[in-house]
Amino acid sequence: MTRVEERVVELERQVAMLERMIQLLGDTLDRRFERYENVIESQGRRIAELSLVLLSLFSGQHKQSAALRDRVAQLAPKNDVGGYYDMMDNSNESSGPPSAAAIGAAAGIAGAAAGAVGAAAADFPLVVQQQQQQQQQQQQQQQQQQQQQSHQRRGGVKFEFLKSPHSVEEVWKEYVEGINGQPSIKEMESLYQTGWRRDPAVNKRYARRKVLWRAIENGLARGYELEYIIKLLEEYRYIDREKGIKHPIGWICQNHNIPEELR
Asked: Which of 109-113, 208-212, 225-229, 250-254 has the lowest mean pLDDT?
């Protein structure tokens, strides 16, 4: 085969690769627009739910205020207060000072009214304060759960890499999320730095897969979608697409097999 023919074959391969990339990019954009529409619709529902909550809250406060007024009216009726003023008017019309009985009755009525108002105010629910207390309790529970998980991981089992992963997605998930109940590689690095991979076999596997992790991180930093990056790497693994034959994961973990735009 001449050099020109080799060049033509290479160009055809590159054109086919570009066509697949454009198709993947188009599919990614369609899914992204659909996700945006779902987010907008979800936000609209949340706003409507919040409006209903606020309306019910204001309605409840109005009913509680009315109940408070009724209770004060029942515990300190106007007749008693009116009797107090009648006694004061009668005592003023007389030439002498008010009698001890009138003073005692007035003091009793005033004390009863003050006690009624105080009791009713103590029973009045503070909705905002209750909500704040609930939020604080939830935050404390979340912090306790995180601390427990952290303690379990620090005193936990020896980390084991996923053996013979079948896809790029599995390798990436092990790095950022963790699998089989184990913490992620990122968490292990954050907690123990290099102490968790002192075993030569573990460190060797870490170094190999780091090439693939870094390639995905480079693609994300350049604005590519994660789904597009994973599909692109899987495309490069194909030996025979029609038969579905691919290179093993170890092949794509070599730097010279990484696509140029992810290096």
From this structure: 109-113
Distance CA 108, CA 83 (A): 12
Residue 89 parent element (H or E): helix 78-93
Distance CA 233, CA 220 (A): 13
- The Cα–Cα gap between 156 and 182 comes to 9
Contacts of 159 (CB under 8 A, 6+ apart): 182, 183, 188, 196, 197, 202
Tokens of 223: 């604005």
CB crowding 24-55: b at 16 or more within 10 Å, else e: beeebeeeeeeeeeeeeeeeeeeeeeeeeeee
CB 125 within 8 A of CB 64: yes
Please tell me whether the overall predicted TM-score, pTM, comes out greater than 0.70 for this model: no
Distances (CA, A) of 256 to 215, 251, 253, 260, 261: 11, 9, 9, 9, 12
